[in-house]
Amino acid sequence: MSHDLPALTLSDAQLEEAVQGLSTIRDWMRFCVTCFRGCDVHLGHGTSDPFAEASALVMQTLNLEWSADDQILDAVLLPSERRQVAELLRRRVNERTPLAYLLNLAYFCGMPFYVDERVLVPRSPIAELIEDRFLPWLKDEPLRILDLCTGSGCIAIACAKEFPDAFVDATDISLDALSVAAVNVEHHELQHRVSLLESDVFSKLPGQRYDLIVSNPPYVDAEDMADLPEEFLREPELGLASGPDGLDVTKRILAEAADYLTDDGVLVIEVGNSQWALQQTFPDVPFVWVEFERGGSGVFVLTADLCREHQALFESSI
Questions:
Q1: What gap in Å lies between CA 162 and CA 164, rounded to an integer?
Q2: pLDDT tens per residue across span 231-266
Q3: Burial class (CB in 10 A: 0-12, 13-18, 19+), 169
Q4: Across the chain, which distance is largest between two alpha carbons, in Å?
Q5: Domain 109-316: CATH architecture, name and number where available
Q6: Which of 5, 157, 249, 275 has the most CB atoms around it within 10 Å of its CB?
Q7: CA dihedral defined by 318, 175, 296, 47, rounded to 10 degrees?
């Protein structure tokens, strides 16, 4: 959708007609899909499927499981329920607010997380790596894990769930983000194994060593920032923008990672669309780019040995 054109919106009359004329869950899902497509709504916060987005909007509003029996789709909504769904649909389409913010709910590694405008909506392909236990790169079960730029805490919490003997430090420069992460740590009852810390990358972690360092840092370059769909502009810029080439934060992590990894430690970072820029900046570094079965790209793995071998190069780039 071009920023030069006004966004297509739903009128009060259209929504009132829907409230009066649509009766079943199936009706409302179909209407939501029509509205998403007709109003050129951008999907990119966890799904690119308008049917999945419509299902989430309607079923969550009604407090029903997404995987509910197919017969329930023919259930008739009460007038009050129709107005609830219509209001959420109006905000999703007209305000271009990501659905996760409207519901205060997102899923990562199959687990629910509280989210609001203080954090990015969880959607990293790193979820697949966590579920695969970072194989084949991790030689042994990690006992200490660091999640840099933790945001909602989803990666840190998913790692703690996957590795029940590990202790996880989760850092962020944003106190707002850490407040959201604290809600999620408590909800998943991990206060004893996930520690939250305000830190600008490694600044508050002197002398610490980790078997696994994982990060989904800000990585959007200036050109892409200027052309983001409205939905992404609802997210905190601090979690997206990372300088002209999208690598400001990643370069700092690379420059210091060797000092915080154990001998057999592993570094995993998502850089998304800035993958090309990273490869151009460090053409001689053998980054391993993960291939994902469920989609996604721009995630690399480096061993502690390679972090040490190229540390001087990384340091010279910042």
A1: 6
A2: 888 988 888 878 888 899 999 999 999 999 999 999
A3: buried
A4: 67
A5: 3-Layer(aba) Sandwich (3.40)
A6: 157
A7: -150
